[in-house]
Amino acid sequence: MAVVLYGYEAWSFRLREERRLRLSENRVLRIIFESKRNEVTGKWRKLHNEELDVLHSSPNIVRLIKLRRMRLAGHVALWGRGEAHTGLVGKPEGKRPLALPRHRWEDNIKVDLQGVGWGDRIDLAQDKGRWRDLADAVMNLRVP
């Protein structure tokens, strides 16, 4: 999965992409953990998602991305107004089709913060302990 996660802290994606990442992760885990034999019928079957979660002790790919994205947001908030801040939080240039409005990295951060009930206050990153707890809470949000 290291190849899939290259540069993922700065990704800006929607729910559709989260589902696709989760699907691809489950596909790889099914290959790794192989099929399971039914004890009653003796036939082979694919592992269910819940069984994959039990066998694979690490958090799923979407939770990992959310955690790392929140940690990067904390660092960006502490850096202040520099090139990194402008690159991650700035407004994208150019035209997009009407069906696909601009979606920024900062929008993902705000959605995650609202999911845990913190509003959209990135300035809370000044308190590193609270921000770390917040990042862990965001990682435990429901994922597709």
Strand order within the widest beta sheet: 1-2
Low-pLDDT residue intervals, each spanning 5 or more residues: none
Overall form:
elongated
Largest sheet: 2 strands, antiparallel
Structural class: mainly alpha
Mean of residue pLDDT?
A: 76
Tell me the helix content: 40-55%
Helix and strand pattern: HEEHHHHH
Number of domains: 2
**If you compute it from the alpha carbons, what radius of gyration comes out, rounded to the nearest whole angstrom?**
18 Å
Number of helices, where a helix is a run of at least 4 consecutive DSSP H or I residues: 6
Q: What's the β-strand tally?
A: 2
Question: How big a fraction of the residues is strand?
Answer: under 5%
Q: CA-to-CA gap between the ends? A: 18 Å
Question: Could you explain how this protein is built, in words?
Answer:
The chain is mainly alpha-helical and 144 residues long. The protein folds into two domains: 15-55, no CATH class; 61-91 and 102-139, no CATH class. It is 52% helix and 3% strand. It is built from six helices and two strands. The chain has helices at 15-33, 49-55, 61-79, 83-89, 105-115, 128-139, and strands at 36-37, 44-45. The protein has a two-stranded antiparallel ribbon with strand order 1-2. Helix 3 packs antiparallel against helix 6 (128-139). The longest helix has 19 residues, at 15-33. It is elongated and about 60 Å long.
Task: Break the fold down into its secondary structure elements and pairings.
Elements: H1 15-33, E1 36-37, E2 44-45, H2 49-55, H3 61-79, H4 83-89, H5 105-115, H6 128-139
Antiparallel strand pairs: 1-2
Helix pairs in contact: 3-6
